[in-house]
Amino acid sequence: MLKAGKLDSDLLKKIVFEKITYKSPHVLARPGIGEDCAVVDFGDYECVMSTDPITAAVNEIGRLAVHITCNDIASNGVQPLGIMLAVMLPLGTTEEDISLMMEQAGQTAAELGVEIIGGHTEITSAVNTPVIVSTAIGRAEKGRSQQAKEMRPGDYIMMTKAAGIEGTGIIASDFEEQLKDCCTAEELKEAKQMLSQVSVVRDGIVAGKAGTAGMHDITEGGVLGAVWEMCQISGTGCELWIDKIPVKAVTKKICNIFDIDYLRLISSGCMLIIVHPENKAYLKEEMDKAHVEISCIGQIKEKEFGIMSRENTGENLIEIFPPKSDELYKVIG
After folding, report:
1. Beta strand ranges found along 147-248 (DSSP E)
2. Does 105 reside within a domain?
């Protein structure tokens, strides 16, 4: 029996990707490990598309459903312009429940400048908690979308904001009662407010204009999973500096309470950005202008080096393994 969460990389290749045999000449970017988006040739433009489900959150599901796929579009350095939502709700759902979800989705889409252009809504016995599958699209001039294939040894690994943003917000929102005995009211407020920070659209657009060697929004599998996936796309290795990865104290505290690893925790709100050395200072300057926190957390290496991490300078290297079930599923069961 398979575990909860997205399929691991080997299984995804074996039972999903290998079953897709027809290749259209109009498709520029296809399914692959760590690929956030498909890209389709539309003449002078590229159509950038992504689809994702929200299954692990309840209280903020409408808001997260919009953010998650818009973040994927932004990881190609493209402004999302439309989104479609397929909403499947369990028996017992009320009109008020649906109204709240759509209020969240509508408000979030308006904030991002993205139109909800269609979808589907139904009540079904096939689910026991709300499930929203969102599909976002964006448009870029041909050849302008960012791809991780530009990564090369010597490039720097940059990361915006702090690890575990989305996971911290979900746990604090959905398990507030359990945390009240361990966390202060101020800590819970800070943690829940992290769900208002899960967009990386600004991060991706600013970085795309500054120039990158590829981007990846950090979702299931956390920081370690995202780094591993990017190295798979580019066929490179890396040295990740664990002590340089920013994380909030409340995230560490909540992860300690539930005995989970914040480096493997879903982290929408954080963008992984690879940048050539000659462009690193300019990228940092542009991010500072946009008031986006950014840190340098590692460096790309030759493939033979391996996908490795180091806790502190001078300590032994530790191999980064492929992402498996996200740490969040240990909490939500």
Report:
1. 156-160, 215-217, 237-241
2. yes
